[in-house]
Amino acid sequence: MGRFSPSWRSRTLDTNEFVQFAERFKNWGRWGPEDEVGTLNLVTPQHIVEAARLVRTGKVFPLGIPIDHTGPQRSRPDSKRFNPIHTMVRTGLDFPGPEPPLMQGTDDIITMPLQGATQWDGLGHFLFRGHMYNGRPYTMVNSDGAVKNGIEKISRKVIGRGVLLDIPRHRGVPWLKGGEAVQAPELDACAAKQGVQVRDGDFLLVRTGNIAMCRAQGGWGDYSGGPRPGLGITVIPWLHEKRVASVAVDNYGVEVHPSDVPGLRVHMHPICIPLMGLLMGEIFDLEELAEDCAADGVYEFLFVAPPLPVTHGVGSPINPYAVK
């Protein structure tokens, strides 16, 4: 069966076919029965050395949105996520006398879902038929968190060569519309047009322009709950064949919504995370980076985005950077 045969194209798989399709991309045991980092195994020390050589100008591009109450966690009534809550527990006003003391400290706390801003989905975040990555049973994600595949296991792994594929510029539009899918052949065409190759061990960033659209509209709108542009189902075998370390998108959930598979809310999460062991990133702000890449024609860079080492966490907010 060819890589992009008709049975793999969007909106053609029923649930049973989807299960058969999903099994083709299982990486369980590929890096041993004890593995907990999945496709990040593809990033070797030599990959990191080569990625460091991509830094030529010293330009640093932050890819995370602000961690505050103005985030996008608003428009999904079925979601338990909320925007971060920042609280001061010691302030400059907390002194006993009429005059400020010689020295004084301040403290604050933040209350937030670990996937409430720009974030990684850990390998314990999604289950498929009762199992998470590497065949571990659902019982290993309990009130203590993910006792295997915790996000802390990848804390030193997320650094290497990053590649941006800018789909709106490839199409000649400011942004993709809600529900528009990016399929694998378009990723190949975009990479060819940009003069960049996607290679094994890469951290792939895909711009849909979803955040640019929100900014133009003056607010997040239904960013977190409505139709969104994103990756289609043919991208799954493409990612598997390209042997990328991760994929991150500027939308709320990586894949296109509505899903390419009728009856399923998502089609990439249940395959890429628990079966493939692929690190997935969401809510990446790629606008400044995309502008610079378009200006200098360089779409590869050093990418650094470690998660917080939250023991047994199934996700983590991040402050990712591209360095050129």
Care to describe what's here?
The chain has eight helices and 17 strands. The protein is an alpha/beta fold. Strand 13, helix 7 and strand 14 form a beta-alpha-beta unit. It has one domain: 3-Layer(bba) Sandwich (Glucose Oxidase, domain 1). The strands form five sheets. A nine-stranded mixed beta sheet has the order 1-17-15-9-11-13-14-4-16, sandwiched between helices. Strands 2-3 form a two-stranded antiparallel ribbon. The chain has a two-stranded antiparallel ribbon with strand order 5-6.
Short structural summary:
By secondary structure, the protein is an alpha/beta fold.
Name a few traits of the molecule.
disordered N terminus; Glucose Oxidase, domain 1; 9-stranded mixed β-sheet; 19% strand; two-stranded antiparallel sheet; 324 residues; alpha/beta
Question: Topology, please?
Answer:
Blueprint: H1 15-23, H2 45-52, E1 60-62, E2 85-90, E3 107-111, E4 119-121, E5 131-132, E6 136-137, E7 141-142, E8 145-146, E9 159-166, H3 167-171, E10 181-182, H4 184-194, E11 203-207, H5 210-217, E12 230-231, H6 235-242, E13 246-249, H7 269-276, E14 279-282, H8 287-296, E15 300-304, E16 315-317, E17 321-323
Parallel strand pairs: 9-11, 10-12, 11-13, 13-14
Antiparallel strand pairs: 1-17, 2-3, 4-14, 4-16, 5-6, 7-8, 9-15, 15-17
